Amino acid sequence: MNNPGFLSSRSTLGSDVSYLFAVVFTLLFLISGVFAKKHKGLKHHRMILVSMSTMFLYFIYYYKIRRLGVSSMADEIVFSGPDWVYQKVFRPALMAHFMFVTFSISLAVYMIANGFKTAVKNKGEMTLKNARLRPSITLWALSLVWLAFLAWWLFFVHQFGWGYRIMFLALGYFIPAVMVALIQKTLPESEKRHRVLGAICIGLFAGLLVTSTLVYCLLYVVEY
Questions:
Q1: Residuewise pLDDT in 10s, the chain (224 residues)
Q2: Separation of CA 60 from chain center
Q3: Which strand (E) or helix (H) includes residue 193?
Q4: Rounded alpha-carbon distances, angstroms, from residue 111 to 100, 149, 161, 169, 183
Q5: How far is Cα 112 from Cα 44, in angstroms, rounded to an integer?
Q6: C-alpha triplet 117, 32, 206: angle, nearest 5°
Q7: pTM of the full predicted structure?
């Protein structure tokens, strides 16, 4: 994956494929959001499932070549620009990208689970039913299983420093858990919850696309 890339003279094959994966699944999510806005529920439902499949392939690949972005934060990727660009532009852009990833992916996964509970098929089309939702014990149980896996991965599979362990625990579990708790408290009606969170998701994925492109350009396109 360290072979020369095809999008830029300075990029690698791994970075180019990683960036294209990110662009594709982000655009698929945005297209599915457009279908939802146009009340094309069945197309929205199918496109979301395709988007999620693409996203999981992306994260498997991203883990293989970037250790989920830790290489970038740990200064293992050579940044060819001036130090002030690195400190004041690149690292903040990378952190913003990680935050967009955390919120957009967490919200998307939650939205899919919420969609299966909320959506009903009516005359060949998917529509939303309106009901008051209660916190899901199954969802929280699965989240604890994920927390246990994340802790095992951080403490036993990789030798990360404490700073990276805390960062990954926050981004990978505690921030999404607080976000879900706030959603359940402030948006108890299923239909309103799905529509409001869907609109937020579109904004988050747009931000994800922008920050992905900015980080890639700073690394491989901009001439310093």
A1: 668 888 988 888 878 888 888 888 888 888 988 898 888 888 988 888 888 787 777 777 666 655 555 555 544 566 788 999 989 999 899 889 888 888 888 888 888 888 878 888 877 777 888 888 887 788 889 889 999 998 998 898 877 789 888 988 998 899 989 998 999 899 989 888 988 998 898 899 899 899 999 999 998 999 87
A2: 13
A3: helix 190-220
A4: 16, 22, 33, 21, 11
A5: 11
A6: 115
A7: 0.80
